[in-house]
Write a structure and sequence with these properties.
- The complex is a heterodimer of chains A (92) and B (532).
- Chain A is 40% helix and 34% strand.
- Chain A has three helices and six strands.
- Chain A has helices spanning 35-43, 50-60, 65-81; strands spanning 2-7, 11-16, 19-24, 29-33, 48-49, 85-90.
- In chain A, strands 5-1-6 form a three-stranded antiparallel sheet. In chain A, strands 2-3-4 form a three-stranded antiparallel sheet.
- Chain A is globular.
- In chain B, helix 7 packs across helix 19 (452-465), helix 16 (389-399) crosses helix 18 (422-436) and helix 20 packs across helix 21 (498-521).
- The longest helix of chain B has 34 residues, at 218-251.
- Chain B has helices spanning 7-26, 29-37, 50-63, 72-85, 122-126, 139-147, 159-167, 175-184, 190-197, 200-209, 218-251, 260-266, 288-300, 342-350, 368-380, 389-399, 407-413, 422-436, 452-465, 470-485, 498-521, and strands at 91-97, 105-112, 115-117, 129-134, 257-258, 281-285, 304-305, 322-323, 329-333, 354-358, 361-365.
- Residues 138-147 of chain B have low confidence and may be disordered.
- Chain B is of the alpha+beta class and 532 residues long.
- Classes of the chains: A alpha+beta (92), B alpha+beta (532).
- At the A-B interface, strand 2 and strand 3 of A face helix 10 and helix 11 of B.
Chain lengths: 92, 532
């Protein structure tokens, strides 16, 4: 099984000159995301796996693959908790 | 903790409750907080029950007359002093809140460990936007405070000019110059000014695009970023309503054109910074023969009027606003003005309309000419309120865009009853053009533009010196703006008693006098000139 991540249907995202503001329409809570978070959420326009998101971050920012994996995984966990993203299970 | 207040502490609380409230009217809170903080104890907290002490102070203030009567600021200031003296590290916060067109409200509260402390209703504090927090920074912070307001040659920095230079469109600001300027800006009163002008999101985005969002004094920078993010989140809520409603209207075959803020946000790709304004509602126009039907059908779909039908204005140019569970008001317009017949309004909205595609749907928005005219006419509908930066922004973003404007059509409408007068409208439009970084075509030039810099300097001076007297501040700003426009002193309100009219007249004359005296003698930063 491969887990892909996709935006929650209630996620609305706005870019503020580099940083992002994410609104959860259902809970009406909003979150500020930094440049990396914005890139990740924007990349989820197409459902992606953790590895694919790490590749996006490594390509855009000067970080090692290990650093990016830790950072992306933590970010996805927080986003899932806040119902900004959801998981999509499928065949690898 | 024993749940009661020791006798000695009761005496100290009583003395504080008698002494501190009058001082709040006599000295600035910044100075008073410095005095109160001198008694702060660095020792471990004494064995007191803060909740019992707060209840005692509440009872005292409620029992005292007039100048001592309970307010959140008096309560917070007294508890701030007593608790810090007892070794409890509390901070005092002051915040403001504005809901749509309601007056600005302020609230003071204590925090401890970054959470509201001893607040009867903690949600009240979190619903206010923080504008000041005490104690302020340490020695370094105080030094910074003294030097702000002057540049490295000791020259006075004109805060209003720096704000306008930052907001001005049509060119990207020089990041280095912007950072240097904002580092020197005296931000006292600036948060209130930015709130009243409605430009937090615009200012923050301009600063951020130049990488200068951290250049202003830390408290202001933090407030501005928080406020801008709140505005951006509210805009997302309105955007979601536009998106859902657009699908509904298209699916049900209702012709429509998005107008005002909704249109500007949809068309932000054509007009940079058109989406950098807080939007609370959603506006669209429909043909006159379909608008009532759409309004009825929306109610059958779960929308309901935002106010009871008897409170809805029957002569208005849109039907009573509707909303559903997200509480974003939707206004279905028959026209854009009481002065424009619905058929004309629909023709204007659809002539050369542009369709913006998003999420697989088309969202029709008016041409640049119509968006500009809507900005002008809507702004000037608000009297002196229309001379706030947020209304200029509505026109400036269109002027700064590259879409063609049919100036002949704008010139033709300047003599219509949609605007107060040709002269005032051209003066307003001139200021909007300056803010857009462009000039008006020759046929519309010749009338001096409304002096935005001077108006902002005055408003900032008012916010700095009269912030604790909101009605006086409002009158001072009103008369200052009227004087700049060239309008007479505000006449009395018809239907009020002669005594009320006289009192208002006297207040207006005094406010006008204060403004004229300030204009004669003020320094560039808005402070009164001093003789050496």
């Amino acid at each position: 099984m491969t887990i892909r991540y996709r935006p929650h249907p209630d996620l609305r995202l706005s870019s503020l000159e580099g940083e992002g503001v994410a609104l959860q329409l259902g809970t009406r809570r909003y979150f500020t995301v930094n440049k990396t978070g914005l890139v990740i959420l924007e990349a989820l326009a197409t459902p992606r796996t953790l590895d694919e998101l790490v590749a996006v971050v490594v390509e855009r920012f000067e970080v090692t693959r290990e650093q990016a994996t830790t950072s992306v995984r933590g970010f996805l966990d927080r986003c899932r908790e806040a119902e900004l993203i959801s998981e999509l299970e499928g065949e690898g | 903790m024993n749940g009661t207040v020791p006798f000695g502490l009761k005496v100290r609380a009583s003395v504080s409750a008698l002494v501190i409230p009058p001082l709040l009217s006599l000295v600035s809170f910044r100075r008073l907080s410095a005095w109160l903080d001198r008694g702060a104890s660095p020792a471990a907290p004494a064995s007191i029950d803060p909740a019992a002490l707060a209840a005692w102070v509440d009872r005292l203030l409620c029992a005292l007359p007039g100048p001592w009567r309970h307010t959140c600021l008096k309560r917070s200031a007294i508890l701030y002093y007593l608790l810090r003296k007892a070794g409890l590290p509390v901070d005092l916060c002051i915040g403001v809140r504005r809901e749509s067109d309601r007056p600005l409200t302020a609230h003071a509260w204590l925090i401890r460990d970054e959470a509201p402390y001893l607040e009867p209703d903690a949600s009240r504090s979190t619903s206010h936007t923080l504008i000041a927090r005490f104690p302020e920074g340490g020695a370094a912070g105080r030094e910074d405070e003294r030097t702000r307001g002057r540049d490295d040659r000791g020259q006075v920095v004109d805060t209003a000019s720096v704000v306008l230079d930052t907001l001005r469109l049509g060119r990207e600001p020089d990041p280095g110059a912007l950072q240097r300027a904002w580092h020197e800006v005296d931000t006292s009163g600036l948060a209130q000014l930015v709130l009243e002008e409605g430009v937090a999101l615009w200012l923050y985005r301009r600063l951020k695009s130049a990488g200068a969002e951290s250049a202003p004094e830390a408290g202001f920078a933090s407030w501005l970023s928080q406020r801008a993010r709140e505005d951006a989140a509210k805009n997302l809520l309105a955007d979601a309503r536009v998106s859902e409603l657009g699908g509904w209207l298209t699916g049900n075959g209702y012709p429509h054109v998005w107008i005002k803020g909704s249109a500007r946000r949809l068309a932000a790709a054509l007009y940079p910074y058109a989406d950098a304004r807080a939007t609370n509602d959603v506006d669209l126009i429909l043909p006159q023969d379909r608008v009532r039907e759409a309004w009825d059908q929306l109610q059958r779909s779960g929308y309901e009027p935002t106010c009871s039908p008897d409170r809805a204005r029957v002569d208005h140019f849109h039907l009573a606003a509707l909303w559903n569970q997200d509480r974003v008001a939707v206004e279905l317009h028959l026209s854009t003005s009481r002065e424009v017949p619905p058929d004309d309004a629909w023709r204007r909205a659809t002539t050369l309309a542009v369709t913006v595609n998003a999420n697989g749907l088309g969202f029709p928005v008016p041409s640049a000419t119509e968006l500009l005219w809507q900005g002008i006419a809507h702004g000037l509908l608000h009297g002196t309120g229309g001379f706030r930066l947020r209304y200029f922004q509505d026109a400036s973003v269109i002027l700064a865009g590259v879409e063609p404007i049919h100036w002949g059509e704008i010139a033709r409408r300047l003599d219509s009853s949609e605007v107060p007068s040709r002269g005032v409208t051209l003066s307003w439009l001139g200021a909007a053009a300056e803010l857009a970084g462009r000039s008006l075509p020759p046929e519309l030039s010749g009338v001096p533009a409304f002096d935005l810099i001077r108006a902002l300097r005055w408003r900032l001076a008012v916010h700095r010196h009269a912030a604790r007297h909101p009605r006086a501040a409002e009158k001072l700003v009103e008369e200052g703006t009227r004087a700049e426009i060239g309008w007479p002193i505000l006449p009395g309100v018809p239907g009020t008693s002669p005594a009320v009219r006289m009192r208002r007249r006297v207040a207006a004359v005094a406010a006008r006098g204060a403004y004229l005296a300030w204009r004669q003698f003020a320094r560039p930063d808005g402070r009164p000139a001093r003789r050496n």
